[in-house]
Amino acid sequence: MSATYSEQAPAKINLFLHITGKRDDGYHLLESLVCFTAVGDVLSGECRDDGAINLTITGPMSASLALEETKNNLVVRAARLLQEESGTSLGADLVLDKRLPVASGIGGGSADAASALRLLCDMWQLDLDQNALSRIALSLGADVPVCLHGRTCLMSGIGEELTDLPELPPVAMLLINPGKAVSTPAIFKAREDEAFSVSGLWDVQREFASGAALADALSECGNDLTLAATSILPEICDVLNALAREEGCLLARMSGSGATCFGIYDTSDQAEKAAIAIAAQHPDWWISPTEIISQQARVLSNIGASFPD
Ligand SMILES: C[C@](O)(CO)[C@H](O)COP(=O)(O)OP(=O)(O)OC[C@H]1O[C@@H](n2ccc(N)nc2=O)[C@H](O)[C@@H]1O
Ligand SMILES: Nc1ncnc2c1ncn2[C@@H]1O[C@H](COP(=O)(O)OP(=O)(O)OP(=O)(O)O)[C@@H](O)[C@H]1O
């Protein structure tokens, strides 16, 4: 029997997101403080020797992808690119446990693609150089390089320039998605007339001992896609208000191009209480209390521990 490999695909959170310019090809230059959370998808799989790539999607959010062709799934596209680049004749039977809402600003698809690259490099024992992997990642999407990197960092360029930052403490967070998908290109288009932010505002040396200190520093920044996203989906304002109203909320902000928003809470107890209170009023929203994870925590959780629901 062949071994089962497993990789986590944590949600990506843009703690702040500044749009600093636009390239001639239409892609925007950005600066964003990115971290990852304990909640995420999980990809697992076994090796095949015939080169076939099979993908089964399970989990609470699998229905959102049911109408899409499997060959277009970012996991399968990542696998195909890796086969081409490496020339391997191996394939894989993959299972994606889809827990993150789709098209929701927390990079679910990008995280899945990155986890496929990590899992298959391991399974197929590939020794590709980092540049080749980064090139494949960027060709799959602007958020895939940061998800492949998988640790707290400052992201710039169109998403391919990554500067490591001191790891953040396990800050308590609450993620909420109002259950409506948002198109990233539509949001970038809707902000076309807005001015660009200046870059270089974030002190890359700075360390934070608590969620309160982090939230305080983040209050100087913002998410430059919020206005555009709320004009397309006003329900995002309801989500932000619901997060901010609850006791212990230090900051409420949208991630990426939305519609998922995060709240930073003083304690995990407060984040969990807020989750229960908001769920009672909005049973149709996706609500997930979680925390920021560090790279070290991810490595440890890979050793025998299961990934939190
Ligand atoms: C908004 C963010 O989530 C912030 O992390 C990302 O920049 C989006 O990354 P992504 O979803 O992987 O984006 P892609 O799939 O590469 O691009 C989707 C579309 O978003 C727009 N896009 C994306 C990234 C970027 N830096 N500039 C852009 O203008 C482009 O219209 C592009 O056609
Ligand atoms: N494994 C996957 N998971 C989610 N979406 C996928 C996947 N594979 C392909 N897609 C397609 O990618 C689109 C964007 O999905 P994703 O969840 O990554 O968006 P997002 O959360 O807005 O990402 P970002 O934060 O990078 O803007 C979906 O609408 C879907 O059609």
Automatic annotation (TrEMBL):
Pathway field: Isoprenoid biosynthesis; isopentenyl diphosphate biosynthesis via DXP pathway; isopentenyl diphosphate from 1-deoxy-D-xylulose 5-phosphate: step 3/6
Alphabetized InterPro entries for the sequence: GHMP_kinase_C_dom, GHMP_kinase_C_sf, GHMP_kinase_N_dom, IspE, Ribosomal_Su5_D2-typ_SF, Ribsml_uS5_D2-typ_fold_subgr
Assigned keywords, A-Z: ATP-binding, Isoprene biosynthesis, Kinase, Nucleotide-binding, Transferase
PANTHER family linked: 4-DIPHOSPHOCYTIDYL-2-C-METHYL-D-ERYTHRITOL KINASE, CHLOROPLASTIC
Protein task: Catalyzes the phosphorylation of the position 2 hydroxy group of 4-diphosphocytidyl-2C-methyl-D-erythritol.
Top-level EC class: transferase
Family: Belongs to the GHMP kinase family. IspE subfamily.
Active-site residues, record numbering mapped to chain: K12, D143
Organism name: Thalassospira profundimaris
Binding site for ATP: P101, V102, A103, S104, G105, I106, G107, G108, G109, S110, A111
GHMP kinase N-terminal domain segment(s): 73-150
Domain GHMP kinase C-terminal residues, every copy: 213-280
Pfam families, per the entry: GHMP_kinases_C, GHMP_kinases_N
EC number: 2.7.1.148
Highest taxon of source: Bacteria
Reactions accelerated catalytically: 4-CDP-2-C-methyl-D-erythritol + ATP = 4-CDP-2-C-methyl-D-erythritol 2-phosphate + ADP + H(+)
GO terms, molecular function: 4-(cytidine 5'-diphospho)-2-C-methyl-D-erythritol kinase activity; ATP binding
GO biological process: isopentenyl diphosphate biosynthetic process, methylerythritol 4-phosphate pathway; terpenoid biosynthetic process
Name of protein: 4-diphosphocytidyl-2-C-methyl-D-erythritol kinase
